[in-house]
Amino acid sequence: MFAYIVRRILYAFPILIGVNALTFALFFMVNTPDDMARMQLGTKHVTQESVDAWKQERGYDKALLWHSEADSLAGKATETIFFEKSFSLFAFNFGQADDGRDIGQDIKTRMWPSLAIAVPTLIIGLMVNITFALLMVFFRASYIDLGGVILCVVIMSISSLFYIIGGQFLVGKLMQLVPISGYSDGLSAIKFVILPVLIGVISGIGGGSRWYRTLFLEEAAKDYVRTARAKGFSELQVLFKHVLKNAMIPILTGVVVILPTLFMGSLIIESFFGIPGLGSYTIDAIQAQDFAIVRSMVFLGSVLYIIGLVLTDLSYTLVDPRVSMDN
Prior knowledge:
Elements: H1 2-30, H2 33-41, H3 48-58, H4 73-78, H5 81-86, H6 103-138, H7 143-157, H8 160-174, H9 190-220, H10 223-230, H11 235-246, H12 248-264, H13 267-273, H14 278-287, H15 291-319
Helix pairs in contact: 1-15, 2-3, 6-7, 6-9, 6-12, 7-9, 8-9, 10-11, 12-15, 13-14, 14-15
């Protein structure tokens, strides 16, 4: 088990290095340190002295990749913007934002509101989608199945912005059951996350339920299911003991895709509901042209996605005996 985990983690390092290098190149190909300084200071009446002072204060006055004038060979590689701003991310040293804030502290503070929304949305949404999909499969080729598919298509066809704005107007303004926006610490945060979680679950029913229905129908047509029915198992027993169990691998794969959002937060929902999570943090950084925060969030998202892949490989060994850790 330990050797398997180590091997999977070692596979991830080249991917992280490639993502880190590509992100660095994209940022500094589009904007030079001088451009970044002028964006922060303002484009009017900015002297070169002010630009140089801003760059020196934040460490952007060094060479990008190779400091040819450094005294030592190690210094030529380490006394660069890439080593100090991007390579240091591997030690989870996020440094400071362009406006001087501690990015690491911001992430620690803002991760909890994001998790407060993302975790319930994932768990409740997964249960609702799987239950609804099993219901359609149980009544397959009937009007209930047809109505469920049509409902899923309708839900998928409506923009998530409609659910957000409609939910805020109906539940928050007309019915006044929960606040429209804002956030609070402790148990009082529940009233602020109920509506975002509800909207997240409802808006995801269409795509999620249709996908799970397809998986379950594919499993229900296989030989082992026909054999189980021939042995006298009821349809409910076949669905829950055989179909659902054997569909766990693609279900786990689908969950991995959204695992990074548990930590990173939802960009749209957090922005509309005024939730001080990592999603709104990233949006604010993009609008403010704060490249240090955006680079950190891109790298963090890559790390979380790779962790999800490792966890998925481990989960495969638990739900599928055909998958061996020796592979």
